[in-house]
């Protein structure tokens, strides 16, 4: 289970506790289990048992990490109080299996909605479905788009008659729609993960079908080779600076395009730089041949 570089992006909440991709990685992989995972598990285990006080995250951390001392008497008492019986959560399976099962439990408990993909692949008989988390919905209900409740219902591909039910669910998830939607675009139809997949496909096809070496060689000019190398290096540095400046100033653009715009722009800069690298190789080869 890899985050694809989206460590810092919230993917949902368990009660009041936000979770991130790195939260799940800490649980599934052989790392120290993160505090937010602990808090989310405590919330799940105890919310239907108000008479039981959740154990602290340090103790549960020892349990999930396989600490034999923590799994002894205290673990037994906790299991008897909360986790026992047919509805129990922990079943004394191997630690790695337990990590994976708890990760599935947490992920399935995230507040959100499943929606069908707008972009359907022609050879696929079944539309792909994406999880729209409460955090994503809150981003859409905030500037620059500021979704209203009606826009949220339409975005979730729900009938207008379900507005009341969805509004109640949004309130439970602490998502606050605006009174009036301020901005929509074609990007607004796509889920954040769908935008990520689309950007990935665009850049995959660009890398596959744009001949970088041929483009680089087409950029060769007559004249002093050493001067051309310096010029190309300066061009690469300038483009790197432009990219860095854009990244510092495109937060609103990122929100408006749900990650699609920055991903495509980053990929485009990478493609241009790859072509310039091919030009550098051709120049150096030409220089060695001339010598």
UniProtKB/TrEMBL annotation:
Span of domain Transcription factor AP-2 C-terminal: 122-245
Keywords (A to Z) from UniProt: DNA-binding, Nucleus, Transcription, Transcription regulation
Biological processes, Gene Ontology terms: regulation of cell population proliferation
GO MF term (any one): DNA-binding transcription factor activity, RNA polymerase II-specific
Superkingdom of the source species: Eukaryota
Homology family: Belongs to the AP-2 family.
PANTHER family found in the cross-reference section: TRANSCRIPTION FACTOR AP-2, TRANSCRIPTION FACTOR AP-2, ISOFORM D
UniProt protein name: Transcription factor AP-2 C-terminal domain-containing protein
Species this protein is from: Culter alburnus (Topmouth culter)
